[in-house]
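I'm curious: can you give me some protein's one-letter sequence along with its backbone structure tokens because I've never seen that pairing?
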Amino acid sequence: KQWYQRRVAITAGEIRNKFTALATDASKYYEADLERIKTDDNLVSRFLAHQRDGKPGKPNDKDETAKMIESVFTWRKVNSVRDLDFSKDPDHVLTSMYFRGQDLDGADVLWVEPKYFDKTKRAEFEKYLMWLVENRPGEADSSQITIVLALGDVGLTEVDVEFIKYFINIFMYYTADVMKKMIIHNMHWLLNGVWKLVSVMLSEGAKKRVLFLKNKEVNKHIPEASVLACVGGPDPFRYQAA
């Protein structure tokens, strides 16, 4: 274990040095992000894992990881991620995305109920998603999450393709190996065309972590008692439309 920790620290140090060489204008980034990357080997390792995405290491993967960190940090400052605050009385419709419970491995679960989305408030949904991920229970430990999309009652008229694209982009390009798996529950065949359209945005590694499940198959990934009613589980918690 000590050998592994030393190797992680050495690799993180190399990536950190490459990032420092790229980050010549400190005004482009949050100071808190710059301070965190200096000491958080786990976060750097998450960025490296995201860059590799299940593939064997490449000679330039440390360079690409440093570039990704720079890109993510720039995006975070441009989009005011650290300044968002929905902790008090967010628009009720936004709370159709929420964290509740953990999967079988202890990862926090983000539940998403698209049938309640309001396309006229897409910009607010995007900000709320950023805030949720930024303030997830295990963020300080760079933890991964399991995402559940409850699509049982969702048809073509309820689907906001642009928001789905944004949703995927967040986990593909602007977070560090956050998505452990994505469970798509009871997707109607009418949405197959939409999925084909947006799935091209996923990396090959991420595609392997997308699971199309029916009914009680969710129990193989989330403890039965913690499966919500929106996907046929015993937990009675429900998002209530206003």
Q: What stands out?
A: The beta strands are 97-102, 108-112, 145-150, 179-185, 210-213. DSSP finds eight helices and five strands in the chain. The CA atoms of residues 164 and 198 lie 7 Å apart. The two ends are 51 Å apart (CA to CA).
